[in-house]
Design brief:
mainly beta; five-stranded mixed β-sheet; two-stranded antiparallel sheet; elongated
C-alpha cells in the first residue's frame, strides 16, 4: 500500500502519508470512534512541499483536536519565472506583474 501511518510525538495524533497522491494528513486517532468535525487544507508556496508544513500542522492539530489537516504537495513542473527550473508549483508563474 502507498499509505502508511507514523506515530507522532503525541499518542493521540496520526500522520498518514499517501505517496501516490503526495499528501500528508494529520488527525487525532479515530480508532476510538471519534471523527473529525472539519478539515483544513494547507497549500504550500512555490518550491515547498507538504513536509515543510507537517510540523506546524501537527501543532495546530494538537490545539484543535476535532480538525483534520490535509497537506497536499504540488506537482513538480517547470516555472518560467525561475528560468524553467522544475520545482513543486501549483501553476506556472510567468512574471510578477500580476499575470500568473
Amino acid at each position: 500500500s502507498s499509505v502508511r501511518t507514523i506515530a507522532m510525538s503525541s499518542s493521540l495524533q496520526r500522520l498518514s502519508i499517501d505517496r501516490s497522491a503526495q499528501r500528508i494528513t494529520i488527525a487525532h486517532d479515530t480508532s476510538t470512534g471519534a471523527k473529525a468535525q472539519a478539515s483544513v487544507i494547507v497549500l504550500h508556496g512555490l518550491g515547498d512541499t507538504a513536509q515543510g508544513w507537517a510540523d506546524v500542522a501537527s501543532m495546530w492539530a494538537e490545539a484543535l483536536p476535532s480538525i483534520r489537516f490535509v497537506l497536499p504537495t504540488a506537482p513538480t513542473r517547470p516555472v518560467t519565472l525561475n528560468g524553467g527550473m522544475a520545482m513543486p508549483a501549483w501553476y506556472d508563474i510567468v512574471s510578477l506583474d500580476g499575470d500568473r
